[in-house]
Amino acid sequence: MKVYAAYYNNNVRMDSSSGGLFSLIASQFDVIYGVEMDENNQYAIFARKTQDYSSLRGSKYLQARVGDTFRLVKNDLQSGMKVLFSGTACQVNGLLNYLQVDYPNLFTIDVICHGVPSPKLWHKFTEGTDVHSINFRAKDGGWDNYTYGMKINGKYIPFNNNRYMTLYVKDLALRPSCYKCISKKTKRSDFTLGDFWGIEKIYPDMTDNKGTSLVITRTEKAQNLFEKLKSQLAWKEVTYEEGVRQNVSEYQSSLCPERRRQFFIDLSQMSFDDIYKKFCPKPSLIKRIYRKIRRSLSN
Asked: Is the separation of the CB atoms in 191 and 109 below 8 Å?
């Protein structure tokens, strides 16, 4: 296993959540499986692509529907096609358990996962809104230090003002299995991709506020492919500890909040505004001053 900070210095990087590595890797395959939003932007679904896979770029912060994807992957592999499957670690493990065969023409990517929230939260957030377009990780404000945001119907919402993401990172709406994720202990993917948070402290020349990926090659065939692609990348090899220091979701599950059960009860009965006010109350003046002082001291 080797670990890298890397980015693909191509215009697709601005449409990607971090360094654009998925797009470069995907360009090497006949068939690509990954997650896109459905035509109404209400559900995340797995899709099969053979040419334009742009809709598979970027994070989708809700649970994805697998459908008959595993069967389609098996059919493509048995037809001799070179297949890339990208998903969360549990989805990758699920696919491999289904296949029961080590196909040399299959490569898998797991994306570092904080946990997947219930679609109910997204539906409540977008209730009464016709969502024509959605980018969960737009970089209009940059990428470093949570300066990214969400763009809905062309309107940019900075991370700190994004009420959906605020509730998401509070871990209230995650699946029960996400609080004790067994796939974090046994990752069977070829590649792991995620954000390289903190890269500016290790290699300052590897960040330009457009996104830097954390890349983990877990198998020999993944390492061989990465070696082939290196010439198209800006990259630096790092230790595993350096790579995950500020992205503990690579190996650590989220903690289950005590109020999770009540949150789901309220999610069925209350408006999104009322839910947000209840579970994300404004901090007191003293706390706001304290946070401001801490931020100024850390700069």
From this structure: yes
In this prediction, residues 98-104 reach a mean pLDDT of: 96
pLDDT of residue 36 exceeding 90, the answer is yes
Q: How many CA atoms lie within 13 Å of 255's alpha carbon, on the beta-carbon side?
A: 4
Single pTM value for the model: 0.92
Farthest-apart Cα atoms in the chain, separation: 64
What DSSP assignment string belongs to 92-155? HHHHHHHH-S--TTEEEEEE--S--B-HHHHHHHTTT---S-EEEEE-TT-SGGG--EEEETTE
Contact (Cβ atoms closer than 8 angstroms) between residue 35 and residue 44 = yes
Give me the DSSP letters along 256-290: PPTTHHHHHHHHHHS-HHHHHHHHSPPPPHHHHHH
Rounded distance, CA 213 to CA 193, Å? 7
What are the two backbone dihedrals, phi and then psi, of residue 72, each rounded to the nearest 5 degrees? -65, -40
For residue 67, is it left (φ>0), alpha (ψ between -120 and 50) or beta? left
256, exposed or middle or buried, with CB in 10 Å at 0-12, 13-18, 19+?
middle
Judge contact between 147 and 207, C-beta under 8 A: no
CA distances from 157 to 19, 104, 111, 273 (A): 21, 43, 24, 16
Query: Would you tell me how many other CB atoms lie within 10 Å of the CB of residue 152?
Result: 21
- Per-residue CA distances from 17 to 11, 75, 137, 228, 250 (Å): 13, 30, 6, 23, 16
pLDDT of residue 135: 96
The pLDDT tens digits for 38-48 are 999 999 999 99
Cα angle for residues 58, 60, 66 (degrees, 5° grid) = 115
Going by C-alpha positions, the residue among 195, 208, 197 that lies closest to residue 234 is 208
